[in-house]
Write a structure and sequence with these properties.
The protein is of the alpha/beta class and about 725 residues long. Helices cover about 35% and strands about 15% of the residues. The strands form five sheets. Strands 2-3-1-4-5-9-8 form a seven-stranded mixed sheet. A hairpin with a 6-residue loop joins β11 and β12. The chain is elongated.
Length: about 725
Amino acid sequence: EEFLHTKFIGQKRFSLEGGENTIVALDAIINKSTDGGVEEVVIGMAHRGRLNVLANTLGKTYEQIFKEFEGDMPENMSFGDGDVKYHLGFSSQVTTPSEKTIHLKLVPNPSHLEAVDPVVEGFARAKADILYDSDYDRILPILIHGDAAIAGQGVVFEVAQMSKLRGYYTGGTIHFVINNQIGFTTDFDDARSSTYCTGVASVVQAPVFHVNGDDAEAVQFVSELSVEYRQEFNNDVFIDMVCYRKHGHNEGDDPEYTQPEMYKFIKSHNNPREVYSNLLVKRGDVDKDLANEMENRFKKFLQERLDNVKQKPLEYEYQESEQAWRQLKRPSEIKPEDFDFSPATGIDKTTIDKILNHLVTIPKDFTPLPKVKRLMKSTKEKIDSGKLDWALGELMAYGSILLDGQDVRMSGQDVKRGTFSHRHSVLQDVENYKEFNRLEGLSENQGKFRIFNSLLSEFGVLGFEYGYSLSSPNTLVIWEAQFGDFYNGAQTIVDQFITAGESKWQRMSGLVMLLPHGYEGQGPEHSSARMERFLQNCAEFNLTIANVTTPANFFHLLRRQLARPFRKPLVVMSPKSLLRHPECVSSPEDFETGKAFQEVYDDANIKDVKKVKRVLFCTGKVYYDLLEKQREQERQDVAIVRVEQLYPFPEKQLNAIAEKYGKAELFWVQEEPANMGGWQHLQRFWGDKNLQLISRKPSASPATGFKKKHDKEQAELVDKAFA
């Protein structure tokens, strides 16, 4: 730290000085944990001390760190925008004093201090599921907090509440708090109401060790004790290391403006290394000259590294799940033409029949609700009539992925049944309350279908699922919002991780977000998944945004997530009313071999293209309102074109359709107000077309809260489209 302070004057590094014994704690935790069977440690932390942890704990070379301070771009940086040095992740494997090898991961993080916490937990859970046979003693999550952040950020509470739940359990986390008694410039008595910053530990009855940050041996002791406790009881444990911050929030900040008295004490206080050196000398354990010699030798060593004397990085052996990522295209290898058309994702008729028959078969020793019996009867009738609804299309996608030997994980509020009672993926026995997972038992070698009703959390749970998706490209990971509007409780995860993680940190994710969206007169909080926000964040092929209108197309969309030779997050504007709409059905043939996801659907009802005077481009559920009007008026002069994928924008297909209809007028029809929905996105990507808008008027609120007003608005919108 001192070396960086003198060589890179004024540069931010978020110094660990005053809390240096964090390194002692991490060393103690890692070394002790290997003796208890831990094979991998996953660390999440914000800025304070991160560079020190990277160098001293994970073995990132000093040369690499110095290059980042010089502002050099990495040699392999052929894609993306990168991130500041104290946000970057790192992986290594180290050998402990007991000659055991352990994998270490530091997860990349944004400036949102505690946002990385659920990501670490999800990543650790995925590794446990995929690599360690769900033996949580073999992988250990460590979260490093600041005292102000752990007390002030609500996501910490969400993560604590997850810790013992079936879907989010990771075997206990060690929480290490660098308690420097200040948050930027805020004193601790303004930063929390609880006596201790670790008050959240009481939520899960986790023990808290409060330890003096100047006492290296005490820090080591409680760190080792925490590991023993975690391995024995698989519960969270907190270490509150009370220390101080030598400099301001960053090194360009003068802390004396706001804490003059505190910094008067800090200036005259020996640092933890000096405190411990003096103790060792006093006890006769070490000669004073040796301590000075070690310090001088190390400074010389650093100067050599700064002068570009090569330092050999640690060797790293890629784990199985990491090897899977390396078999896919890297972000820099993905080309625009990769998005022109979708790969074939259909399955053979035998497999279709097998999955459908399995979905309507209930074990003989299972007693379902009478309602479930009626549901199964109704589902069987749909199958026999060849009209497969949304639930069947979705469950078929999962079943086919499982038969391919790949796993599916899904979580969110009420996802087992589905908020709108359409999924029913897990049934309850009325006599013994045992669960029956309808997607188990398809075959002996199938993948695992893991589905969990989440706690009432968006931020924490979405972060967890994002973290889960990072561990392996061969698991379909899905988070569903109860209503699409509710995802905004997790906006930080969307903005900082999902939309930008690939560009900032070169981390790919195939996470799927299902966000129920559509205007049915249910009011402003149950209508819009804020499509416009996602579309505004689209660039460099970072996301897929879809709003599909048929069960078969949804089936192909989900299968495409694992079929492409790369991974991209998928955001689906899921339907509500279409789950049971009599027109929203697909035939079994639509799922068969050779079929693929359709980015655009032209109007199959038009018999003579030359008669078309007006083309209505739309997306999602409003199509069925327009279709009803087209049929009612028997209009052959108005064609309706569905844009099923909004980004990457299917420009070639849309250009071909526009050209096909010649001089017909082109309109974009959307249910959303003019300042929302897809309109501005269309102008951005298709602005050279003389496209006109039909929508609700601009509005501050996404939708009206009055059903009659909604119905009137919707009728006027459809009438205008056919005027």
